Amino acid sequence: TLKDYVEMLEPSGFFRTHQSHLVNLDHILRYDKADGGHLVMADDSIVPVSSRKKEELFKLFEKM
């Protein structure tokens, strides 16, 4: 399950942004507020960020 991958990869710089998305923090280009909020990744893919995860994600951005 994705939960298993989260447990393995979070210590290595990965973050679960949504129920079905796990991203490498090193590959985030930007956060866009449009359409409820999403990440634009280095490969130009768009990854949604759940409203529950936004605050946690912003705290990680501050540490980076």
Describe the sheet with the most strands. 3 strands, antiparallel
Catalogue the unreliable spans: none
Oligomer: single chain
Question: Which whole number gives the mean pLDDT?
Answer: 95
| Range of strand content | 25-35%
Tally of DSSP helical segments: 2
Question: Keywords for this structure?
Answer:
3-stranded antiparallel β-sheet, alpha+beta, globular, 64 residues, two-stranded antiparallel sheet, 2 helices
What does this structure look like?
A 3-stranded antiparallel β-sheet has the order 3-4-5, with no helix packed on it. A two-stranded antiparallel sheet has the order 1-2. It is α+β, with helices and mostly antiparallel strands. It has 2 helices and 5 strands; from the N terminus they run αβββββα. The protein has helices spanning 2-9, 54-63; strands at 14-18, 21-24, 28-32, 38-41, 46-48. The mean pLDDT is 95. It starts with a helix and ends with a helix.
SSE diagram, text form:
Blueprint: H1 2-9, E1 14-18, E2 21-24, E3 28-32, E4 38-41, E5 46-48, H2 54-63
Antiparallel strand pairs: 1-2, 3-4, 4-5
Short description:
With about 60 residues, the protein is α+β, with helices and mostly antiparallel strands. About 30% of the residues lie in helices and about 35% in strands. A hairpin with a 4-residue loop joins strand 4 and strand 5.
